[in-house]
Specification:
Elements lengths: L2 H12 L3 H17 L2 H15 L6 H55 L2 H5 L5 H43 L1 H48 L1 H6 L3 H53 L6 H41 L20 E9 L5 E10 L4 E6 L5 H8 L7 E6 L2 E2 L5 H6 L1 E4 L10 H6 L7 H10 L3 H5 L14 H15 L3 E5 L7 H14 L4 E5 L3 H4 L4 E6 L2 E6 L1 H6 L3 H12 L2 H8 L17 E2 L7 E3 L2 E3 L1
Parallel strand pairs: 3-8, 3-9, 6-7, 7-8
Antiparallel strand pairs: 1-2, 1-4, 4-5, 9-10, 11-12, 12-13
Helix pairs in contact: 2-4, 2-6, 3-4, 3-10, 4-6, 6-7, 6-10, 7-9, 7-10, 9-10, 14-16
Length: 626
């Protein structure tokens, strides 16, 4: 992006603060005029003191001159202090307001993007965070520099140059000739450093992501004693950053020395030229000091413009990353315009293919029906496409081909917000937000009362544990264990009370007692709802109305438990493996008290059920025994 591209993009952010900017510009003009007072006062003082040699009352005349100069300079400094305070305050207000607006705009945009955006290779959390933070910071600094620094400096330099020409046109031309040389060197410097700055941006993104990944992986790192390996990774990243910074600084220092030489060359030329005009009687002696100080008012702002130019180059680099995040072309989540009550929550999936943005093909020619009020189970090995299918049903992603309808309406035509209001999702690992337990449960329905939150906690079998905590519902939810956090997530669903449920390994991180409790709660909430469940637990899927077995993104088997088991395919293998992993034979021996090879039903074990039509078929707790 060019500088003018950035200015154009920033116009919308700056417009709300036009009155603040107008006040700043007014103060800038006044401040620029006051900046020349010292030079004019010094010229007057030198010329007046030189004239005292012809005065008969040197002490009285000198006292009047010094009194006048003192009043002028002190008055000027008081005005400068007031103006400087106002400029700094207005600048801080503009900077803080702009920073807030830029950060909020990025957050607003990110919340509207499709899930595919976050799955792209260069959109890791740490890299996105760096782009947004560094971009907003650089752009804010750019606006602040332009209105609070560049304009005052430019006005100061222009006015000083005008006074130099007014005093002596030849000296003015010397100062004017130095300016383009200075700017050319600065431009050359920025051009040479741009590549290194771009590398630095990438390194900072990598560094931010690496630190975030280190923190998130700390338990795994420590369990494998891999601290040294991770330290070496961080060391390698830091070395690349350091080498890039050293190369950048080395070149910057070289150019800075060259510019300092050019500046001092200008001072020497102005002193020589001014002295010549004084000697020849074309200028008074005070003009030497006037020209030197005015030249300093020209060169000092230009030197400071180098710092600002560096910030501008940083803004150019980071602005590309920031605006790349907030530009919504092809990133915004699709939504239909149809806002209607879902009367028939039946999903029909026909010939659906799907590939992730990285090219991974997750689903191939998937066909299935999820009927209203029934429980549909998806089973398969990890990576079979089960969770991907749920993501498509929830419009997190759009199928590459094929169609998905809900109640006969393509879900692409449905308003996304209305659709998701009717869906509740419990995942294997649910996210817990920073905040209290009550705030996390209220995420299911923000307008719910405290009594409803309490009831949801009871339904999720977490209420008693919450009440045992010192701060109860005000306890930070992130302090809970993994299993407790899972039940908080389930409590959200009880509070939301949707007609459609997607359950993706809902009890994966719970202990056996909690699993049974949550299963009973889920069994209760599943009634009269359309339910899709993914689970490796036999007890979670065996009672489903229909089971779909998936393999490598395809539906390979479907039917009831009995029918699909007899097909002796994927589901048969998974079911038998699950039974063996549970050591069903040992469990059966435990309940065969008389050793006759038949399970003796314990009447106190209320979850045991006997099928009277089949003397070889029992439901033992969560296990189907044949």
């Amino acid at each position: 992006m060019s500088f003018f591209d950035i200015v154009k993009r920033l116009t919308g952010f700056v417009r709300p603060y036009k009155l603040l900017i107008a006040a700043t510009l007014t103060l800038t003009l006044i401040g620029s005029c006051l900046a020349q007072v010292n030079a004019l006062a010094l010229e007057y003082a030198v010329n007046s003191v030189a004239a005292l040699t012809e005065s008969t009352d040197r002490i009285a005349d000198g006292f009047r001159i010094l009194t006048l100069i003192t009043i002028v300079l002190l008055g000027k400094e008081i005005m400068v202090a007031l103006i400087s305070f106002s400029q700094r305050f207005f600048g801080a207000k503009l900077r803080i307001s702009m920073s807030k607006d830029l950060a909020l705009q990025a957050a607003k945009k990110l919340l509207t993007y499709k899930m595919a955006f976050f799955s792209e290779k260069d959109n890791d959390a740490g890299k996105l965070q760096t782009r947004v933070n560094q971009g907003a910071e650089s752009l804010t600094r750019l606006v602040n520099n332009f209105f609070i620094d560049i304009l005052p400096l430019a006005a100061n330099a222009i006015l000083a140059l005008f006074l130099m020409f007014r005093s002596n046109i030849y000296v003015g031309f010397v100062a004017l000739a130095i300016i383009p040389i200075f700017f050319y060197i600065t431009y050359w410097q920025g051009k040479k450093l741009r590549g290194w700055r771009q590398n630095h941006r990438k390194y900072r993104e990598t560094k931010s992501h690496a630190v975030l990944n280190l923190i998130q992986s700390i338990s795994v790192i420590k369990s494998f004693n891999r601290e040294e390996i991770e330290y070496n990774k961080q060391d390698e990243i830091q070395n690349r950053i350091s080498e890039n910074q050293l190369s950048t600084n080395k070149l910057s220092f070289l150019f800075d020395g060259f510019k300092s030489f050019v500046e001092q060359l200008g001072v020497v030329l102005i002193i020589i030229l001014s002295s010549y005009f004084v000697i020849t009687g074309q200028m008074e002696i005070g003009a030497i000091m006037l020209q030197v100080m005015l030249y300093n008012n020209v060169s000092s702002p230009i030197k400071q413009l180098q710092r600002i130019y560096d910030d501008m180059n940083d803004a150019l680099v980071y602005a590309e990353g920031y605006f790349d995040v907030i530009d919504d072309k092809d990133k915004k989540e699709d939504t239909g315009k149809l806002k209607t009550e879902i009367l028939d929550p039946t999903f029909v999936v026909e010939h659906v293919d799907f590939a992730y943005p990285n090219g991974t093909k997750a689903l191939k020619d998937v066909n299935l029906t999820i009927e209203k009020g029934k429980i549909t189970a998806l089973v398969g090995l990890s990576g079979a496409g089960k969770t991907t299918l749920i993501n498509l049903l929830n419009k997190f992603y759009t199928p590459s081909s094929g169609s998905i309808t809900l109640g006969g309406v393509p879900i692409g035509d449905l308003d996304t917000t209305c659709l998701r209001d009717k869906i509740g999702i419990v995942m294997q690992k649910n996210h817990i937000f920073d905040g209290s337990i009550e705030e996390n449960i209220l995420y299911g329905r923000p307008d719910a009362s405290h009594e409803e939150v309490v009831q949801a906690a009871k339904d999720a079998f977490i209420y008693d544990q919450i009440m045992d905590l010192p701060n109860q519902f005000e306890t930070p939810a992130t302090q809970l264990s993994g299993g407790q956090q899972q039940r908080i997530a389930i409590a959200r669903i009880f509070l939301k009370n949707p007609p459609i449920l997607f359950l993706d390994e809902p009890t994966a991180s719970l202990d056996a007692i909690a699993t049974e409790q949550i299963k009973n709660s889920i069994d209760a909430i599943k009634k009269n709802r359309t339910v899709v469940i993914i689970s490796h637990s036999i007890s979670q899927i065996i009672d489903a109305d229909i089971i779909y077995a998936m393999k490598q993104g395809c539906i390979v088997e479907s039917g009831t438990h009995e029918d699909i088991y007899k097909q002796k395919g994927v589901y048969h293998d998974i079911f038998d493996a699950s039974a063996r992993s549970l050591n069903i034979a040992k469990i059966a021996q435990t309940y065969d008290e008389d050793g006759d090879g038949r399970i003796d039903i314990n009447p106190d074990f209320t979850s045991n059920r006997f099928d009277p039509d089949r003397d070889d078929h029992y439901i033992l707790g969560d296990y189907d025994l044949i």
